[in-house]
């Protein structure tokens, strides 16, 4: 049947062609879509070419699916396309098929296409007549395609494909609260048809499918062609052995692929649950039913069990609380409390990132839920399947983004270079065989044989040897990597960003003391917090302003909250079901625990049936959770016996000050705050507000935090001590010694961050720190930027109500080294008004404080734009964006794999950073070495064969086997086994395979290889006893048992071993060669075996090798050959170790190429700053006049 789409005839008549479209432009998931439709004529030509080329044309189209689309289909509008070519944000091409599904009435109408069915043979292109439209039935269908497990659906109204989202995009919170009461069974079926099953499954392919896929790999196709070619050339033994080795390789590859696939499948399935409780709409009202989790769809109302569960989807809490372990998602092992969305947020648009405190993410573990009275803990499903948080993790493993790393591009260029060499060799081979008057078949076979020699099929695999070993070693050290190519990138790391709390410093904070406000003056620091009177607002704020809960009898929550509450020596009680003291809704009650406290009720006349005294208890009625963007949290509480509620707030001092009444800001706050922060203490400000007496509980649940978090009264400071981890200073020093820049990106106070930076060594004791101060535009005044010294020795502090510090500047100009410190607020203004100065600021910036998660990621991106290879190390909680954005993201987590970063370290300190860098440098050096060795192996054999072709001979079967299997394969495998150097040095490994130094290394070794093989050959020709090999008769095979063959075999065998030593560098990036026991033993055995064949040949061995020998003759000739190869060894190793690796050679190339300016942008920026006498603008503002 053929389809005619209603409403599309006009578009066709006007000649409108929607052949291409961009989906999600400007994002990481951008797709350029091109539409194609099957063409009978083009398909016939394609199959004809396939037959004429004996299937090769089809095979090439298998490797390049987009070519098959070009050959078999024609361009068409997207509305008619049956196949699409997708170009992703990385420039890679993919082919997908457009699916068409029938739908029933009631299916979401915005995606439905109405179709008429008519005879396909009618060849009517402009659509059937109106009479035909009226007489033929209408079919309802939807069109879509799947790309990397994400569904893109056709929207007829927009005439385009769009990504299918759930309710996680453009959904008002008011809709989540009011519009979802449970679907009917029919509604659920329609949505399941739209969204598919809620399944995150990694398919484990059958062995048969994997076998066919593996065999059709270009590597094995090349091997099959090579084996066939060798068989035609009578190399049956060699061809048979290579065939057996290839079969073993296929089997091992199949088992490894299947094992990895099964492992990922098991990891995904292990956390899956089978049954979920949801609400179903019935005529009698919502009914709770149990269904399989596969049947969940966006919009379902999920009932979370009290005992917890593993979340099968992403869902938004609309009632009740949940305690969740999100280590799989964020790497943060501390359970977090999730609270429901409220009516105060109903005007906001739901965002999984912004409202993550309300969101239960798929794959995370709900440890416990809490509900009150007869209510249930309910959540609205917003996303299912691979679109969930867990699905994104699995997709990132299945479809890792390609790295824009120069090594891989250069490797492909080098392979093309080898093809060019092969073409030269083929031309020479044709010339030789024409000169020798050989037949066409022999000439063809020998010429094609050159290709199998010059371009070894194992070359691409050799590029990953070092990475594989490095990944294995990292795993043994408790560092897991889900993106192995990142290991190579880690070897070029130039800068490391560190989070502070939990990364540089201990997770746990110790309460040092408090400073309470009395009579509008800052009091003296109190070390014993519990000694303060229990009715103090400061104590009440510390006891209530948190999100702690009991889990298995233990107080659980943010470590800061735990220490703060424990310092009060109060107790926390969570009411059981049926408790009525707090309207059945108070999540927790806090009270002094050292003895029963009773207080008089404030107004006995307003309280019914209240005794003369009531217990001093505070019930927490509502929480406004902490967020990195607001830098504060607050709670609404009510003391037992009182009719009004209080609000307690804690957060960053500068934020709390801005929310307080100016008259409540005490005198002397500025100096005290600076006194503690410059010593590295973490300072939290506390404030309160008495709320209106008429505010009811229901109104309190609806009110927004902005309405209550104002006109606060400042009550004091909480001083916490955050100690450096023991390993921090040593690691920072180690990185700095290796010329790897370190900086801190934290959400803490800027002075505290600067103090920690000094303590850990990021900022030297004699170095100056300049703080960026940015003033936004005011009236006619443009925005300004100025830097002020941060050290107390350089500033004099005066307290004001609005500004913490005013500065008198006395900059020591004799200190050449300075660091810039930037706050999150200053960063935002610099980013907006001073983008031209941003490169200078990030090049000299060391401390970035009060940075939000988005600003952290933004900083990493800016560092990357000036050519830094950036590593980011954090605990995963607020660093997810930066960890993903960085070239090398390392999450400190107990989980084996985290969505937060490509590297996950179980060791909870930053020692993992130098370990990853060391392994990266070792892997990069190893990959370069193995790649160059494999390339030289090809050249050696290429030269050997061409010389022997000239002498009417070639290497024998056993000789090829000895070289390829026993020398090259063994050496290539064990070369990567050398471990990394334990010391980080300032020198960095080369990252440019086609750079001048590497090309000198390769070309010089090629020259030496050719030189000594030619010398050995011509030395043989000069021997008086030598009789040249003669041209065989037409029907006779080549005489491979000849002195020409033996001489070239000896010379080339020793060259392979010499180059292994030359290309096995030790220090500074790897351990010495001798520590690689497997390689050392292999080299000794192979060297001894080859020496035996040269100096004292055993008859049985020489016969086995098809080698010409004379046990008692020509000893001086053999000794001379040994001297030749020994000389080659010395010169080859010396050239690599003392010339190619020397700085003098690099400087020489720079002089020859007239390189005067550095290539990296950050080095250019540093030079510009050094040459600018007015930078940095200390004390003198810089103004921005650009329009924003």
What does this structure look like?
The protein has 1188 residues and is α+β, with helices and mostly antiparallel strands. The chain is 40% helix and 20% strand. It has 38 helices and 45 strands. The strands form eight sheets. The chain has an eleven-stranded mixed β-sheet with strand order 22-44-43-42-23-37-41-40-38-39-45, with helices on both faces. It has a nine-stranded antiparallel β-sheet with strand order 25-24-36-35-34-33-32-29-28, with helices on both faces. The longest helix has 39 residues, at 912-950. Its main location: membrane. The chain crosses the membrane at residues 44-63, 235-255, 414-434, 934-953, 959-978, 990-1020, 1073-1095, 1115-1139. Residues 28-154 form the P5B-type ATPase N-terminal domain. InterPro entries: ATPase_P-typ_cyto_dom_N, ATPase_P-typ_P_site, ATPase_P-typ_TM_dom_sf, ATPase_P-typ_transduc_dom_A_sf, ATPase_P-type_domA, HAD-like_sf, HAD_sf, P-type_TPase_V.
Keyword list:
single chain; 1188 residues; alpha+beta; 11-stranded mixed β-sheet; 9-stranded antiparallel β-sheet; 38 helices; 45 strands; 40% helix; 20% strand; disordered N terminus
Could you write a compact summary of the structure shown?
This protein is an alpha+beta fold and 1188 residues long.
Helices and strands, with pairings:
Blueprint: E1 2-5, H1 9-13, E2 20-23, E3 31-38, H2 40-52, H3 56-63, H4 65-72, E4 73-75, E5 83-88, E6 93-97, E7 99-102, E8 113-118, H5 130-135, E9 138-147, E10 150-155, E11 160-163, H6 173-178, H7 185-195, H8 207-215, H9 218-232, H10 236-270, E12 275-282, E13 285-292, E14 301-303, E15 309-310, E16 314-319, E17 321-325, H11 327-330, E18 336-338, E19 359-360, E20 365-370, E21 378-383, H12 389-398, H13 406-435, H14 440-454, H15 459-462, H16 465-476, E22 479-481, H17 485-490, E23 495-498, E24 510-518, E25 521-522, H18 537-544, E26 549-551, E27 554-556, H19 559-568, E28 570-573, E29 588-592, E30 598-599, E31 614-615, E32 618-627, E33 632-639, E34 646-651, H20 653-659, H21 669-677, E35 682-690, H22 697-702, H23 705-708, E36 713-721, H24 728-737, E37 741-745, H25 750-760, E38 768-775, E39 784-789, E40 818-823, H26 824-833, H27 838-844, E41 845-849, H28 853-865, E42 870-874, H29 880-885, E43 888-892, E44 903-905, H30 912-950, H31 957-975, H32 996-1021, H33 1043-1062, H34 1077-1095, H35 1099-1104, H36 1115-1140, ...
Parallel strand pairs: 23-37, 23-42, 37-41, 38-40, 40-41, 42-43, 43-44
Antiparallel strand pairs: 1-8, 2-3, 3-4, 3-5, 5-6, 7-9, 8-9, 9-10, 10-11, 12-13, 12-14, 14-21, 15-20, 16-19, 16-21, 17-18, 17-20, 22-44, 24-25, 24-36, 26-27, 28-29, 29-32, 30-31, 32-33, 33-34, 34-35, 35-36, 38-39, 39-45
Helix pairs in contact: 3-4, 8-10, 9-10, 9-14, 10-31, 13-14, 13-30, 16-30, 18-19, 27-38, 30-32, 30-33, 31-33, 31-34, 32-33, 32-36, 33-34, 33-36
């Amino acid at each position: 049947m053929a389809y005619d789409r209603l409403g599309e005839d006009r578009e066709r008549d006007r000649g409108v062609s929607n052949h291409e479209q961009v989906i999600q432009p400007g994002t990481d998931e951008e797709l350029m879509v091109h539409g194609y439709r099957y063409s009978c004529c083009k398909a016939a030509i394609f199959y004809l070419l396939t037959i004429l080329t004996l299937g090769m044309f089809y095979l090439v189209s298998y490797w390049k699916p987009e070519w098959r689309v070009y050959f078999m289909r024609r361009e068409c509008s997207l509305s008619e396309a049956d196949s699409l070519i997708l170009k992703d944000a990385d420039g890679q091409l993919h082919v997908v098929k457009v699916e068409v599904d029938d739908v029933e009435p009631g299916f979401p109408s915005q995606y439905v296409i109405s179709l008429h069915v008519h005879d396909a043979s009618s060849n009517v292109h402009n659509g059937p007549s109106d009479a035909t439209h009226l007489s033929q039935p209408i079919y309802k269908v939807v069109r879509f395609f799947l790309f990397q497990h994400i569904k893109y659906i056709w929207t007829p109204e927009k005439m385009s494909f769009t990504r299918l989202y759930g309710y996680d995009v453009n959904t008002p919170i008011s809709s989540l609260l009011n519009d979802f009461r449970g679907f009917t069974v029919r509604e659920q079926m329609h949505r399941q048809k739209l969204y598919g099953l809620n399944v995150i499954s990694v398919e484990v392919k059958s062995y048969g499918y994997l076998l066919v896929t593996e065999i059709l790999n270009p590597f094995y196709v090349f091997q099959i062609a090579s084996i066939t070619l060798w068989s035609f050339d009578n190399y049956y033994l060699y061809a048979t052995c290579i065939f057996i080795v290839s079969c073993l390789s296929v089997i091992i590859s199949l088992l490894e692929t299947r094992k990895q696939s099964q492992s990922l499948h098991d990891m995904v399935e292990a956390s899956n649950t089978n049954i979920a409780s949801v609400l179903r709409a019935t005529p009698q009202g919502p009914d709770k039913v149990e269904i399989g989790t596969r049947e969940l769809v966006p919009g379902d109302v999920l009932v979370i069990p009290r005992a917890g569960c593993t979340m099968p989807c992403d869902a938004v809490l609309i009632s009740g609380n949940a305690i969740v372990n999100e280590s799989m998602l964020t790497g943060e092992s501390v359970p977090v409390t999730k609270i429901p969305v409220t009516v105060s947020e109903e005007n906001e648009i739901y965002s999984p990132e912004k409202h993550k405190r309300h969101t239960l993410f798929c794959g995370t573990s709900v440890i416990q839920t809490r509900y009150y009275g007869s209510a249930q803990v309910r959540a609205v499903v917003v996303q299912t399947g691979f679109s969930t948080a867990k699905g994104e993790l699995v997709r990132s493993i299945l479809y890792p983004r390609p790295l824009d790393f120069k090594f891989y591009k250069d490797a492909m260029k080098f392979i093309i270079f080898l093809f060019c060499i092969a073409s030269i060799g083929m031309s020479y081979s044709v010339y030789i065989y024409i000169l020798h008057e050989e037949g066409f078949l022999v000439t063809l076979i020998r010429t094609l044989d050159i290709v199998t020699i010059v371009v070894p099929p194992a070359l691409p695999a050799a590029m990953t040897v070092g990475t594989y070993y490095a990944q294995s070693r990292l795993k043994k050290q408790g560092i897991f990597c889900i993106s192995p190519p990142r290991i190579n990138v880690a070897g070029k790391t130039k800068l490391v960003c560190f989070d502070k709390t939990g990364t540089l410093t201990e997770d746990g904070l110790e309460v040092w003391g408090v400073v309470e406000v009395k009579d509008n003056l800052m009091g003296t620091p109190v070390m014993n917090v519990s000694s303060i009177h229990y009715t103090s607002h400061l104590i009440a704020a510390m006891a209530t302003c948190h999100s702690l809960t009991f889990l298995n009898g233990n107080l659980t929550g943010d470590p800061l909250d735990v220490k703060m509450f424990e310092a009060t020596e109060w107790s926390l009680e969570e009411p059981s079901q049926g408790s009525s003291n707090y309207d059945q809704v108070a999540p927790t009650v806090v009270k002094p625990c050292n003895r029963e406290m009773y207080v008089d009720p404030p107004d006995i006349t307003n309280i019914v049936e209240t005794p003369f005294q009531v217990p001093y208890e505070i019930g927490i009625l509502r929480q406004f959770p902490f967020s990195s963007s607001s830098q504060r949290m607050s709670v609404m509480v009510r003391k037992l016996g009182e009719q009004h509620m209080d609000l307690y707030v804690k957060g960053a001092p500068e934020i709390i000050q801005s929310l307080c009444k100016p008259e409540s800001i005490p005198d002397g706050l500025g100096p005290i705050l600076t006194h503690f922060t410059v010593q590295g203490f973490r300072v939290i400000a506390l404030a309160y507000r008495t709320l209106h007496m008429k505010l009811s509980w229901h109104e309190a649940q609806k009110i927004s935090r902005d309405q209550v978090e104002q006109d606060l009264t400042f009550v004091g400071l909480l001083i916490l001590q955050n100690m450096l981890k023991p390993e921090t200073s040593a690691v920072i020093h180690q990185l700095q010694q290796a010329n790897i820049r370190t900086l801190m990106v934290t959400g803490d106070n800027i002075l505290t961050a600067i103090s920690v930076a000094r303590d850990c060594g990021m900022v030297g004791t004699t170095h100056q720190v300049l703080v960026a101060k940015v003033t936004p535009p005011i009236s006619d005044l443009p925005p300004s930027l100025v830097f002020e010294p941060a050290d107390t020795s350089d500033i004099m502090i005066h307290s004001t109500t609005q500004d913490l510090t005013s500065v008198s500047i006395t900059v020591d100009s004799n200190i050449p080294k300075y660091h810039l410190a930037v706050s999150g607020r200053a960063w935002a203004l610099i980013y907006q008004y001073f983008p031209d100065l941003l490169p200078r600021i990030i090049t000299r910036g060391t401390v970035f404080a009060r940075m939000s998660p988005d600003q952290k990621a933004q900083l990493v991106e800016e560092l990357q734009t000036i050519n830094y290879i950036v590593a980011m190390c954090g605990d995963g909680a607020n660093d997810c964006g930066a960890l993903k954005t960085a070239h090398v993201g390392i999450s400190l987590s107990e989980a084996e794999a985290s969505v937060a970063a490509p590297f996950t370290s179980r060791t909870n300190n930053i020692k993992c950073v130098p370990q990853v860098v060391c392994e990266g440098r070792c892997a990069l050096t190893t990959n370069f070495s193995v790649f160059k060795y494999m390339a030289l192996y090809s050249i050696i054999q290429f030269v050997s064969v061409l010389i022997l072709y000239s002498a009417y001979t070639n290497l024998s079967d056993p000789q090829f086997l000895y070289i390829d299997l026993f020398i090259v394969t063994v050496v290539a495998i064990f070369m990567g086994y050398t471990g990394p150097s334990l010391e980080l040095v300032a020198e960095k490994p080369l990252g440019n395979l086609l750079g001048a130094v590497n090309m000198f290394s390769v070309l010089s070794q090629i020259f030496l290889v050719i030189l000594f093989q030619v010398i050995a050959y011509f030395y043989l020709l000069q021997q008086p006893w030598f009789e040249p090999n003669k041209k065989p008769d037409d029907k006779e095979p080549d005489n491979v048992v000849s002195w020409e063959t033996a001489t070239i075999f000896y010379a080339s065998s020793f060259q392979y071993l010499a180059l292994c030593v030359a290309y096995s560098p030790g220090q500074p990036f790897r351990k010495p060669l001798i520590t690689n026991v497997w390689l050392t033993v292999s080299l000794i055995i192979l060297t001894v075996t080859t020496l035996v064949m040269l100096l004292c040949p055993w008859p049985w061995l020489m016969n086995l090798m098809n080698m010409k020998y004379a046990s008692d003759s020509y000893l001086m000739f053999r000794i001379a050959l040994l001297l030749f190869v020994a000389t080659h060894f010395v010169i080859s190793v010396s050239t690599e170790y003392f010339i190619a690796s020397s700085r003098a050679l690099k400087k020489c190339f720079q002089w020859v190429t007239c390189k005067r300016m550095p290539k990296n942008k950050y080095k250019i920026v540093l030079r510009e700053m050094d040459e600018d006498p007015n930078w940095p603008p200390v004390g003198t503002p810089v103004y921005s006049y650009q329009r924003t």
